[in-house]
């Protein structure tokens, strides 16, 4: 059984026991979080009905907060000596999926 959930502006395919990395969630390590399900596949049964999916709960446990890879932003204009350097590192949260409940 697996589910497609909406997490941090993206869709993630999750199964029970899987660890996923999503955009930062403001929750402490060990806290429980839930994600809205967009699709549930249980063997040959595929659930896409909005009314049926409203009863489905995908829950997970926050493991820790991590940082993504560093992105270097370099801007350069020739003949003027103009150079600008900027860096960015995204904040992520690792979540372990504990249950997909309510699926028929």
TrEMBL record:
Pfam families: Ribosomal_L21p. The keyword Ribonucleoprotein applies. SUPFAM superfamilies: L21p-like. The keyword Transmembrane does not apply. One of its GO terms (biological process) is translation. InterPro entries: bL21-like (IPR028909), bL21-like_sf (IPR036164), Ribosomal_bL21 (IPR001787). Part of the 50S ribosomal subunit. Contacts protein L20. This protein binds to 23S rRNA in the presence of protein L20. Belongs to the bacterial ribosomal protein bL21 family. This is Large ribosomal subunit protein bL21. It comes from Candidatus Planktophila sulfonica.
């Amino acid at each position: 059984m697996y589910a497609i959930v909406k997490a941090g502006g993206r869709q993630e395919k999750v199964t029970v026991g899987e660890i996923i990395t999503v955009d930062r969630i403001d929750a402490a390590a060990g806290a429980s979080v839930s994600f809205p399900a967009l699709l549930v596949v249980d063997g040959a049964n595929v659930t896409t009905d909005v009314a049926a999916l409203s009863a489905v709960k995908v829950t997970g446990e926050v493991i820790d907060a991590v940082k993504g890879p560093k992105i270097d932003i370099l801007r350069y204009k020739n003949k003027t000596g103009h150079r600008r350097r900027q860096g960015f590192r995204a904040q992520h949260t690792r979540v372990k999926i504990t249950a997909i409940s309510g699926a028929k």
